[in-house]
Write a structure and sequence with these properties.
3 helices, globular, alpha+beta
């Protein structure tokens, strides 16, 4: 299972806007969010209506800068399923340039029980 999410970098996605730096380039928090969005999309069609997934681990190497106006594509691929835990390999690319790579883990949960535990 895999999914890819295209994104046109805008001012709201910059390190300056997200508080993660002082340059107007794609911020790492947005890179992580795109990776998670791709992972959620990759498994979404396989989940029962009462199920959802929650992110429990993200490890990212953000290796290239991207300017406002450029398009990136975040891709998540399932690499392992162990019970209710799903592991992904994730990338963000700008054309043929690798912007970020990493790993992401999500756990399947029952929506209602998860929210009920929050009190």
């Amino acid at each position: 299972m895999s999914a890819s999410i295209p994104f046109d970098v805008d001012d709201a996605a910059t390190a300056v806007a997200l508080g993660s730096g002082d340059l107007a380039v794609l911020g790492t928090p947005k890179v992580v969010a795109l990776m998670e969005e791709a992972a959620v999309t990759a498994i979404g069609a396989e989940l029962a209506s009462q199920e959802t997934s929650v992110g429990v681990m993200v490890s990212v190497d953000h290796v290239a800068a991207v300017k406002v106006g450029d398009r990136v594509v975040a891709t998540a691929r399932v690499t392992e399923v162990a019970g209710n835990t799903i592991h992904f390999g994730v990338t963000v690319e700008r054309g043929d340039v690798v912007v970020a790579t990493g790993r992401h883990t999500r756990v399947l949960v029952d929506r209602r029980r998860f929210l009920d535990r929050l009190g």
